[in-house]
Recover the amino acids of this structure.
């Protein structure tokens, strides 16, 4: 369980640190966009009131906010239960920590701001991607992919 805790802790810390920097230090909410690498990487402020790509967003409805906090808590609890019950290999515990740390990072945003702070925007080759994401989103995606595609055999 220590592996789950530390993986989740570092993801959560990095996520919250980057969000603090862009929201409060860079004041991206006011500036709206900072070009980091022209044509490839921009910091573009986006408040996500829903789930991925703004799905189920309803203009900051309070009920949606609390439902999504509850869903994140249930998923995190389910992943912890699975780890406790199945004792996966080290990589499975890291993956679980990525999912939990990312989910909790986005939950803190919903508590603090009422929405998730997304800011990383990647475009390429003339394609202008309208969506933004954050460190927590990347961690959740990677952790879930690892849990699905990597063998979760128990440790010997």
């Amino acid at each position: 369980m220590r592996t789950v805790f530390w993986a989740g802790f570092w993801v959560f810390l990095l996520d919250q640190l980057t969000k603090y920097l862009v929201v409060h230090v860079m004041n991206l909410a006011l500036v709206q966009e900072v070009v980091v690498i022209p044509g490839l990487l921009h910091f573009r402020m986006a408040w996500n009131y829903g789930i991925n790509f703004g799905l189920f967003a309803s203009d900051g409805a309070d009920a949606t906010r609390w439902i999504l906090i509850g869903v994140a808590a249930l998923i995190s609890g389910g992943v912890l239960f699975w780890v406790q019950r199945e004792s996966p290999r080290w990589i499975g515990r890291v993956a679980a920590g990525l999912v939990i740390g990312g989910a909790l990072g986005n939950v803190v945003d919903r508590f603090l701001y009422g929405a998730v702070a997304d800011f990383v925007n990647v475009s390429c080759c003339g394609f202008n991607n309208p969506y933004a994401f954050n460190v927590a989103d990347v961690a959740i995606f990677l952790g879930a992919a690892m849990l699905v595609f990597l063998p979760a055999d128990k440790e010997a």
